[in-house]
TrEMBL record:
Coiled-coil stretches noted in the UniProt entry, renumbered to this chain: none
Identification of the protein by name: ABC-2 type transport system ATP-binding protein
PROSITE patterns, A to Z: ABC_TRANSPORTER_1, ABC_TRANSPORTER_2
Domain ABC transporter: residue ranges: 5-234
Superkingdom: Bacteria
Keyword Disulfide bond on entry: no
Record's keyword annotation contains Aminoacyl-tRNA synthetase: no
Species of origin: Lutimaribacter pacificus
One annotated GO molecular function: ATP binding
Keyword field: ATP-binding, Nucleotide-binding, Transport
Entries under Pfam families matching the protein: ABC_tran (PF00005)
InterPro entries linked to this entry: AAA+_ATPase, ABC_transporter-like_ATP-bd, ABC_transporter-like_CS, ABC_transporter_ATP-binding, P-loop_NTPase
Taxon lineage: Bacteria, Pseudomonadati, Pseudomonadota, Alphaproteobacteria, Rhodobacterales
SMART domains listed in its UniProt record: AAA
Length: 309
């Protein structure tokens, strides 16, 4: 099956000389959720803006379901829905009129049944006659998604979709995203909330200084680059670790009531069994053991920090 989106050697240099993108390559499969992560100024918005036809690239190619964004602009753009970060909606217009107008902008014939289905899926049907200024911030973001879906796109870009939204509404948005994916919509999501990527993404792309550092399946990335942390709770407090543990990188925490041990998940041996045996030899009695996998946020920070070095 051909990819739904192909980006090859994409470049963007502004008149000021600033190079926002430097040879970006990215392939996205139909029906997947890709989380695009990167610090401010990394090139996320520029990349999305070029794909959506809002910014002209300096070089490279972008194909949307086989349609080149420059040579076949109308067909390519009709396949894309964009939900911008900023909430820019006509405050005195109704929800229904906004989504009808958005569909008409793409030359689509009237289809009230489709628009009703979109609004119902976003829990907006009861608000169809409400004016935008009467809606909460979370509802306004849902209206942005409804507008982006009105013309039945195959790809949906969500640029910081839950910025400024409380935790409950954020989880509701995640459910909406999962529902869209179930209907076959491909989703590219930029976010500062790493837990969003960890929760719903199939793959993660990390961009920094205009270049893609990696694109990998989320689970594989965490397994390949993640580290595990072993926290050993002690039965009795100790003042210091025996000298024999100095080379093992152990850390005494919680005022001597616990020991912290980091190990690489990629290693053939974790060293845990021998560590526990050595602790027993020293008469250190364990009360409990807890392990924790490195989060995607820690991996992301490590990648960006390494790239900046």
């Amino acid at each position: 099956m051909a990819p739904i989106l192909e980006v090859e050697g994409l470049q963007k240099r502004y008149a000021s000389g600033h190079e926002a993108l430097s040879g970006v390559d990215l392939t996205i499969e139909k029906g997947e959720i890709l989380a695009l992560l990167g610090p401010n100024g990394a090139g996320k918005t520029t990349l999305i803006s070029i794909i959506c036809g809002l910014v002209t690239p300096s070089g490279g190619q972008v194909r949307v379901d086989g349609h080149d964004i420059r040579h076949d602009y109308r067909k390519a753009r009709a396949l894309i829905g964009l939900v911008p970060q900023e909430i820019a909606l006509e405050p005195f217009e109704t929800v229904w009129n906004l989504v009808r107008f958005s569909r008409g902008l793409f030359g689509k014939p009237r289809d009230d049944a489709h628009l009703e289905a979109v609004l119902r899926s976003l829990s907006l049907w009861d608000k169809r006659d409400a004016k935008v200024h009467e809606l909460s911030g979370g509802m306004k973001r849902r209206v942005l998604i409804a507008k982006a879906l009105a013309h039945e796109p195959k790809i949906l870009f969500l640029d910081e979709p839950t910025a400024g939204v409380d935790v409950e509404l954020r989880r509701g948005m995640w459910e909406v995203v999962e529902g869209l994916r179930a209907r076959g919509v491909t989703i590219i999501l930029t976010t500062h909330y790493i837990e969003e990527a960890e929760e719903i993404a199939d793959r993660v792309a990390v961009i920094n200084r205009g270049q893609i550092l990696l694109v990998e399946e989320k689970a594989r990335l965490m397994a390949r680059m993640g580290r595990k942390e072993l926290r050993i709770e002690l039965q009795h407090r100790i003042d210091a670790l025996p000298d024999r543990f100095a080379a093992q990188g152990l850390e005494l925490i919680h005022d001597g009531n616990a020991i912290l041990y980091h190990y690489d998940t990629r290693g053939e041996r974790t060293g845990i069994a021998s560590l526990l045996a050595e602790l027993a030899e020293e008469g250190i009695v364990l009360r409990d053991i807890v392990t924790r996998q490195s989060s995607l946020e820690e991996i992301f920070v490590g990648l960006v920090t390494e790239d900046a070095a």
